[in-house]
Amino acid sequence: MRRALPAGEVVRFLLVGVSNTLIGLALYFACVILYGHLFPTRTKPIIADIASITSKPIAITIAFLCYKHFVFRTKGNYLREWLRCFAVYGLSTPIELVILPLSTKLFLCFAASRIYAPFLAGVVNSGIIAGYSYFAHKKFSFKR
Q1: Does the model's pTM come out above 0.85?
Q2: In this structure, which long-range contacts are made by residues 96-101, counting pairs with CB atoms below 8 Å and at least 24 apart in sequence?
Q3: Which of 138, 140, 98, 104 shows the shortest CA–CA distance to 119?
Q4: Alpha-carbon distance 6 to 134, whole Å?
Q5: Residue 22, Cβ neighbours under 10 Å: how many?
Q6: 7: which DSSP letter?
Q7: Distance between CA atoms of residues 68 and 109, nearest Å
Q8: d(CA 114, CA 106)
Q9: How far is residue 43's CA from residue 62's CA, in Å, rounded to a whole number?
Q10: Angle formed by the axes of helices 44-66 and 7-38, to 10°?
Q11: What are the backbone angles phi and psi of residue 63, rounded to the nearest 5°?
């Protein structure tokens, strides 16, 4: 178990992961607000998906740099590891494109959360993807 989850690495991943999640959510929220104003006739589930697709490349690049330098501490191989990082997140994108609209619709069912539905859906999505990403990055993106 210790080899699969080195204590320092897991703690660094969690710290960087929280920061990356906050940055990713901030980018996503900004896109939700922007697209909500640009496309007022579109439904909130569609806006949630468009915001996710457009904010993701920036968030992935920031996450890649943080994971590379602070968590897994690998040297060189920038392009290969960056592309692998995109591949890891690329595999989660179809799942997110299902989670986001479904959870947005769920939050739209409750009067208290209607206005925040796409934002709450983004938080739910981030939580689900976090566990998957640690093992995928450790075993694939930043494999030593």
Answers
A1: no
A2: 96/52, 96/125, 96/129, 97/49, 97/52, 99/124, 99/125, 99/128, 100/45, 100/48, 100/49, 100/52, 100/125, 101/45, 101/46, 101/48, 101/49
A3: 104
A4: 12
A5: 11
A6: H
A7: 41
A8: 9
A9: 29
A10: 140
A11: -60, -45
Angle at 29 between CA 23 and CA 31, to 5 degrees: 105
The one-letter amino acid at 35: Y
What's the token pair of residue 68?
Answer: 């590379």
What tokens appear for 94 in the block? 């179809």
Could you tell me the two tokens for 63? 């996450």
pLDDT digits (tens, 9 = 90+) for 92-116: 888 888 888 999 999 999 888 888 9
Tokens for 62, please give them.
């920031």
- Residue 71 and residue 13 in contact, taking contact as beta carbons nearer than 8 Å: yes
CB count within 10 Å of CB 133 equals 22
Rounded to a whole number of angstroms, the distance between the first and last alpha carbons of the chain is 18
Average pLDDT of the chain to the nearest whole number: 87
